[in-house]
Amino acid sequence: MVSTIVVGGFFGDEGKGKIVAHIAYTEHPSIIARGGVGPNAGHTVYKDGVKYGVRMVPSGFVYDKARLLIGAGVLVDPVVLDREVKLLGCGGRIGVDYRCSIIEEKHIAEDKGTERLAKKIGTTGTGCGPANKERVMRSAKQAADVESLKKYLTDVSQECNDALDRGENLIIEGSQGFGISLYYGTYPFVTSKDTSASSLAADVGVGPTKIDEVVVVFKAFPTRVGEGPFETEMTPEEAQKRGIAEFGTVTGRARRIGYWDPKMARYSAMINGATQAAITGLDRIDPAVKGVQEYDKLTENVKEFVKQAEKDAGVPFTLLSTGPDQKDIVDLRNHKK
């Protein structure tokens, strides 16, 4: 039995979906449970060569044998969930905790109409902040109160713990980056709750003593969508020169690009309690490594980059992504243990 949390180490968009999928294909979990805030973060994943952007369904949906659960700590937008379930055809595998709070139209309207948040902070306008505010005030609607969700309702914490008791594998996936944690991020330019591994475990109701691995996902060139401090940000001209242009899955906004941040990597690994790390975008360090699946075939400058990143973060880098395809990865987990 192995329970693994996959969490973003920078400001989001680190490629967590790909890492979740890879771990799922190799560890064969019976459950992939999602923690995090809600539909304000999107994950881009590939299945059978088709690109999907998901906001509610766990990105581990690509692994067909896993039950897909949404933990009690997650905000649910029933409209978004329904759309994704139909698109992905995964309704038979979905479970929504009956205690999830619901994003309603009024929350979205408030989010988009909030001058301070929409313009100053750069909120995604998906209603998460107002919905969490109502949750804190103990006046929120819960999943158990929504007719369209009744077919999915379950006790996610019970399912997860029962699976662990049976000796099955569990993956808990996060949906935001460490840098926008309400507690540890660049306040006030943050999301509406904590996004660290500890909170992800709480979101799905699995106690800390039952977590075996915490995989923090970093990006060789960190990115950030929206406003807020970004200490290693490069100029748009430099990003263009390097051929890096990215856009947010949810908002479509251009992502700000930065250089590797050793200080943030170490702090993130510390607070998340990382046991290992994954890094994506190594093909942007050196295009010659694109698609490489064996460590020995990596170029020397990429190997040096990874070695330095390991020293910076203080944890072994066991999953090295060399391109966007699911197969573009060097898996060193057996070598590093």
Task: Describe the overall structure.
With 337 residues, this protein is α/β, with parallel strands linked by helices. The chain has one domain (3-336): Adenylosuccinate Synthetase, subunit A, domain 1 (Adenylosuccinate Synthetase, Chain A, domain 1, 3-Layer(aba) Sandwich), CATH 3.40.440. The chain is 31% helix and 18% strand. It has twelve helices and 14 strands. It has helices at 16-27, 78-88, 105-113, 115-121, 128-136, 156-165, 197-204, 236-241, 262-272, 282-285, 300-313, 333-336, and strands at residues 3-8, 31-34, 43-47, 50-54, 67-70, 94-97, 153-154, 170-177, 213-219, 223-224, 256-257, 276-280, 317-321, 329-331. The strands form three sheets. The protein has a ten-stranded mixed sheet with strand order 7-6-5-2-8-1-9-12-13-14, with helices on both faces. Strands 3-4 form a two-stranded antiparallel sheet. The chain has a two-stranded antiparallel sheet with strand order 10-11. β13 and β14 form a beta hairpin. α3 packs across α5 (128-136). It is globular, with a radius of gyration of 19 Å. The protein starts with a strand and ends with a helix. The mean pLDDT is 93. Homodimer. This is Adenylosuccinate synthetase. Its cofactor is Mg(2+). Its main location: cytoplasm. Mg(2+) binds at residues 13, 42.
